[in-house]
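ARCHIVE CARD
CATEGORY: sequence design from structure
SOURCE FIELD: tokenized fold
FIELD CONTENT:
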């Protein structure tokens, strides 16, 4: 009589689990030589495929990709622009162009430091312009600077400033040296037409080689540029110079006269031709001809003041 159990065709619960356990715990059969070689070859082939897959090149960055541009440096910002978007600029200062590359997120203040490093121009003396004055606290990105933009810089170096502040006497000596290289005034056409009239008969006498104080009477008998007679009256109590002609008398404050120049008349060195500068340029010179030489220095001292005349 058969033992009571599961109906035919059905397995008792737990039979599959026990079979799997037995199969799992059963020791693996040792491989023979041919099987071992085949297994080793398959493993090597799989490793080779994995290796080839790992050597595939990374996809190229598309042209114009900001990330690709940020990774390129011209050497000027090595270490400072890593991982930052860069922009190429043309810095124009003192008629010279400088090509630089800086981070797009640099502020105006940082751009001034960059300009200082390539030009020597101190940041405090710079005016940096791109569509107006570049703010120090805003970035190049914020003011919409694009690659290839031209940045204009205005300013002077310390050496330029010092050169401008040349001592007054040295500057005047240079001016005098330059004047000496020019053609003598008395040979110039504009003066020749007056001098060719000859010495006026009623001009005051001269004393060659002497220096005298201004006379108490007007200096008279001289010519002006138009060839008319002119006299000079020095009103010291009013600090004025009166220039009188037949038509009128001009009363000029001494302080309004910018300069006084003179030159001996060729062939008549005991007389000078003299000009009073009444405006900012030489075009404002008022010329007087046949001034006695002994009064030339006194006229300059009186009009300009001894402390101004060198």
């Amino acid at each position: 009589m058969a033992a009571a159990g599961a109906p035919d065709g059905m397995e008792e619960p737990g039979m599959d689990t026990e079979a799997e356990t037995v199969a799992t715990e059963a020791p693996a059969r040792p491989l023979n030589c041919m099987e071992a070689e085949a297994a080793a070859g398959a493993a090597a082939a799989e490793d080779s495929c994995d290796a080839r897959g790992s050597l595939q090149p990374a996809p190229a960055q598309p042209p114009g990709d900001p990330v690709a541009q940020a990774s390129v440096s011209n050497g000027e910002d090595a270490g400072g622009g890593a991982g930052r978007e860069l922009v190429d600029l043309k810095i124009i200062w003192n008629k010279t162009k400088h090509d630089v590359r800086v981070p797009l997120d640099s502020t105006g203040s940082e751009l001034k430091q960059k300009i200082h490093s390539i030009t020597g121009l101190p940041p405090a003396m710079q005016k940096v312009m791109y569509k107006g004055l570049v703010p120090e606290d805003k970035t190049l990105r914020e003011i919409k600077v694009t690659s290839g933009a031209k940045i204009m810089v205005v300013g002077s170096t310390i050496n330029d400033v010092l050169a401008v502040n040349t001592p007054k006497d040295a500057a005047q000596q240079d001016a005098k040296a330059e004047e000496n290289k020019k053609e003598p005034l008395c040979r110039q056409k504009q003066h020749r037409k007056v001098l060719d009239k000859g010495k006026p008969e009623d001009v005051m006498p001269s004393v060659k080689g002497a220096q005298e104080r201004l006379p108490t009477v007007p200096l008279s008998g001289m010519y002006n540029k138009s060839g008319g007679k002119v006299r000079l009256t020095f009103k010291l109590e009013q600090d004025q110079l009166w220039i009188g002609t037949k038509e009128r008398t001009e009363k000029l404050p001494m302080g309004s006269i910018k300069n006084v120049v003179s030159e001996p008349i060729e062939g008549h060195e005991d007389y000078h031709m003299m000009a009073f500068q009444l405006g900012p340029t030489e075009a404002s010179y008022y010329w007087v001809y046949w001034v006695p030489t002994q009064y030339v220095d006194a006229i300059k001292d009186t009009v300009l003041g001894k402390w101004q005349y060198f």
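CARD ANNOTATION: The radius of gyration is 49 Å. Confidence is low (pLDDT under 50) at residues 1-27, 51-58, 61-80.
SHELF: design records, drawer C
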